[in-house]
């Protein structure tokens, strides 16, 4: 079981479903959320500026690609930068409803992206991720 996950998605129903499925399947003790890439970057900036050394960092990020304000691609481009080098080794799973093969191919240029999976999140998907990350 992971200690903490960050889910980045603009859809409140998707975020609620993620939290429920993750909790019900005991995949993570805690699930934080952000509504877009900008909020997620602020989340990490706040952690970085915090005096609290006890703050648990997410061990996995679930990322949507198509969001207003700042989408997943822009988040990935900025998150790869030196400003976030303390965090950008965190594995990321892209969760998207897109079926564009170009999107799948594009994720391969980001070393922290470990998989590209279709929405919605499911128990079988979490089982798959456990097996994949333990190998």
Radius of gyration: 14 Å
Unreliable parts: none
Q: Output the strand order for the largest sheet.
A: 2-1-3-4-5
Oligomeric description of these chains: single chain
Number of strands: 5
Provide a concise account of the structure shown.
With 135 residues, the protein is of the alpha/beta class.
Describe the structure.
By secondary structure, this protein is an alpha/beta fold. Helices cover 39% and strands 21% of the residues. It has five helices and five strands, in the order βαβαβαβαβα. It has a five-stranded parallel sheet with strand order 2-1-3-4-5. The mean pLDDT is 92.
SSE layout and pairing:
Layout: E1 2-8, H1 12-24, E2 28-34, H2 37-49, E3 60-63, H3 72-79, E4 92-96, H4 101-107, E5 113-118, H5 123-134
Parallel strand pairs: 1-2, 1-3, 3-4, 4-5
Helix pairs in contact: 2-3
Key attributes of the depicted protein:
single chain, 135 residues, alpha/beta, five-stranded parallel sheet, globular
